[in-house]
TrEMBL record:
Residues 391-520 form the Thiamine pyrophosphate enzyme TPP-binding domain. The keyword Flavoprotein does not apply. SUPFAM superfamilies: Thiamin diphosphate-binding fold (THDP-binding) (SSF52518). Residues 11-115 form the Thiamine pyrophosphate enzyme N-terminal TPP-binding domain. Keywords: Thiamine pyrophosphate. It comes from Pseudooceanicola nitratireducens. Pfam families: TPP_enzyme_C, TPP_enzyme_N. This is Acetolactate synthase-1/2/3 large subunit.
C-alpha cells in the first residue's frame, strides 16, 4: 500500500536519500513544503546529507549551480510542487546554460489526490522540461531508487545537465522494498573525433587568420596551457566565449579574454577572422537582436570548424590538437601590471584595480556585476590564482546564490561576489543563508541604483534616451536601496564605501577575515 506511511527508515523518501548518498550527492539545498515533509523527515535521519535552507527557491537552484561548478558533482535541491519549482526556474535556466549537474527533487501531491485538482496542482513535468535536460516522474515506491539513480546519471553524464525528479507524496511516505540503492550509470565524455581533429590541424597550417573559441572544461589550467602552445605554434588567437561556467585565471595561468558583450565591440574584435575553431563553444551571436545589426558576430564568409562538442573530452581534444600540430612548450607573454591603487572617486575601474591587487590566492570570484564589471578582466589578469564564475544564461539573480553554493563546495577558499545592485535584489535572501552557514564570502555591491544595462540597451536598440516614465522603470533611487541595512537585517556585517581609499580598506579587511561581509560600493 502506498497510501499509508511506512515505518521510519523504511519509506520511499529514505530510499531516495540513500540512493543520492550512494551516488555521492551529499548536499541538499532546500525550500520544502507540505508535500515534501516525509522527505524532510528522511533527511533528518541521514546525518551524511548536509541540508541548507534557502528562503526563496531561486536561491536554492542558484546555490546548487555554484556548488556543482566548484565541487564537480551535483547537489540536490528540494522544491515544493510546481509553483515552488517555477520560482527556481530562472536559475535552473542559468544552470542548464552552464551545463551544470543538478538533481531537483520536486514534491507533488499524492498520485491519488491529483484528480481532485487541489490548489497547488500543476503540470510539473511540462513546466520542468524547458529548463531541464532530463525529467523523470517516480512511478511507485519500487521505482524510487532506480528513478533517482537515473536522474543522477543524467545530471552527471557529460557535459552535465539539470535533472528534475518528481516525487509524489504517497511514494515518499510509502513502505519501501528492501535492497541496495541503485547506482548511476554515467556517460563519460567522448574522445575527439579523428576527422574533426585532422580537419582542425590541417586548417591551422594554411595561414588563414584563425580564432580558437573555447568554453567548459577547456578553460581549466592544463588545457589552457595546451591551447597556448597551439596558438604559439600556429599563429591562431584564443578567446573564451562570452559567458562561461568556470574559468581558471590569475597567477601563472594563461591570460585569456572573452568575446565582449556589447555587440559593436564584439563585431570589431571578431571582424579580422577568416576561420573559427570551436572547442565546446557555440559560434558567437548577439545577446539580442538589434535593428540594422547582424545576429551572427562573425564576418561574412568566416569558416566555422568544430573540434569538440560540449559532451566531448575538451582537455583531451586540445591535447590531441597540440600533438597534431607539433606544439612545443613556450613561455607565456608578459602580463601588464595592475595599475597603482587609485584615490578619490570610487568607480568600477578603481574597484577592479583594488580587487586585482588584493584578491586572496585561490579565491573564487562569482561575477554578476553586469555593466559595471565589463572591464574587470583587464585589471585582474595579474591577480593571484582564482576561479571566475559567470552568469551564463542571462537570467539575472544568480550572483549571490552562486557565491553561496561555491562557498559550501569550497569552505577553505575565499569567495568574492561581484554583484550589481539591481540583480542582487532578485535573490538577496541568499545573504541570510550566508549568515546562517557562516560562509566565507565578501560581497561587493555595485550601487548605482539603476538598471544601468537597460539604459544602454534602450539606446542600443534605437529606442532613444529614457524619459520620465522609462526612467521610473529603469531606476530605483526613489527610495534608494540601503544595502548596509538589508545585509544587517539578514545577519551579514556590512559597510559602505564612497571613495576609492575607503573601498580598498574595506576590501583588504574582508579579504583577511573569515565569514560573510558586504561592501556597498557607491559608484
Amino acid at each position: 500500500m502506498t497510501d499509508q506511511p511506512g515505518n521510519p527508515g523504511e519509506t520511499g523518501a529514505d530510499v531516495l536519500c540513500d540512493t543520492l548518498l550512494a551516488n555521492d550527492v551529499d548536499v541538499c539545498f532546500a525550500n520544502p513544503g507540505t508535500s515534501e515533509m516525509h522527505f524532510v523527515a528522511a533527511l533528518d535521519r541521514k546525518p551524511a546529507m548536509r541540508c541548507v535552507l534557502g528562503l526563496f527557491e531561486g536561491v536554492v537552484s542558484g546555490a546548487a549551480d555554484g556548488y556543482a561548478r566548484m565541487a564537480g558533482k551535483p547537489a540536490a535541491t528540494l522544491l515544493h510542487t510546481g509553483p515552488g519549482m517555477a520560482n527556481a526556474m530562472a536559475n535552473m535556466h542559468n544552470a542548464r546554460r552552464a551545463n551544470t549537474p543538478m538533481v531537483n527533487v520536486v514534491g507533488d501531491h499524492a498520485s491519488y489526490h491529483l484528480p481532485y485538482d487541489a490548489a497547488l496542482t500543476s503540470d510539473i513535468d511540462t513546466l520542468a522540461r524547458p529548463m531541464s535536460g532530463h525529467v523523470r516522474r517516480i512511478a511507485g515506491v519500487e521505482d524510487v531508487s532506480p528513478a533517482t539513480a537515473e536522474s543522477v546519471a543524467a545530471a552527471m553524464s557529460a557535459p552535465g545537465t539539470v535533472s528534475t525528479l518528481i516525487l509524489p507524496a504517497n511514494f515518499a511516505w510509502g513502505a519501501a522494498p528492501q535492497g541496495a540503492p541503485a547506482k548511476a550509470q554515467l556517460r563519460a565524455p567522448t574522445r575527439v573525433d579523428e576527422d574533426r581533429l585532422a580537419a582542425a590541424a590541417s586548417a591551422l597550417r594554411d595561414g588563414k587568420k584563425t580564432l580558437i573559441l573555447m568554453t567548459g572544461t577547456a578553460l581549466r589550467e592544463a588545457p589552457l596551457e595546451d591551447a597556448h602552445r597551439i596558438a604559439a605554434a600556429t599563429g591562431a588567437d584564443l578567446l573564451a566565449q562570452q559567458a562561461n561556467a568556470r574559468l581558471e585565471r590569475g597567477g601563472s595561468r594563461v591570460a585569456l579574454n572573452r568575446v565582449p558583450y556589447p555587440i559593436d565591440q564584439a563585431l570589431e574584435v571578431l571582424k579580422v577572422y577568416e576561420r573559427v575553431i570551436l572547442v565546446g563553444a557555440k559560434a558567437p551571436v548577439g545577446f539580442f537582436a538589434y535593428p540594422g545589426k547582424p545576429s551572427s558576430l562573425l564576418p561574412e564568409g568566416c569558416e566555422i570548424l568544430t573540434l569538440a562538442d560540449p559532451s566531448d573530452d575538451l582537455p583531451g581534444a586540445l591535447d590531441a590538437l597540440a600533438q597534431a600540430v607539433g606544439a612545443k612548450p613556450v613561455p607565456k607573454p608578459q602580463i601588464a601590471a595592475i595599475p597603482d591603487l587609485a584615490s578619490g572617486k570610487l568607480t568600477p575601474e578603481t574597484i577592479a584595480i583594488t580587487v586585482g591587487h588584493h584578491l586572496p590566492d585561490n579565491a573564487i570570484v562569482c561575477d554578476e556585476s553586469v555593466t559595471s564589471g565589463r572591464d574587470f578582466f583587464r585589471f585582474t589578469y595579474g591577480a593571484a590564482s582564482h576561479d571566475w564564475l559567470q552568469l551564463t544564461g542571462g537570467a539575472i539573480g544568480v550572483g549571490l546564490p552562486l557565491a553561496t553554493g561555491a562557498a559550501i563546495a569550497c569552505p577553505d577558499r575565499k569567495v568574492v561576489a561581484l554583484q550589481a545592485d539591481g540583480s542582487g535584489m532578485y535573490t538577496n535572501q541568499a545573504l541570510w543563508t550566508m549568515a546562517r552557514e557562516n560562509l566565507d564570502v565578501c560581497i561587493v555591491i555595485f550601487a548605482n541604483r539603476r538598471y544601468a544595462i537597460l539604459h544602454g540597451e534602450l539606446k542600443g536598440v534605437g529606442a532613444g534616451e529614457a524619459g520620465e516614465n522609462a526612467r521610473r522603470m529603469l531606476d530605483f533611487d526613489e527610495p534608494s536601496l540601503d544595502w548596509v541595512k538589508i545585509a544587517g537585517g539578514m545577519g551579514v556585517e556590512a559597510a559602505r564605501a564612497e571613495t576609492a581609499e575607503g573601498f580598498t580598506e574595506l576590501f583588504k579587511r574582508a579579504a583577511k577575515t573569515r565569514g560573510p561581509f558586504l561592501i556597498e560600493a557607491m559608484i
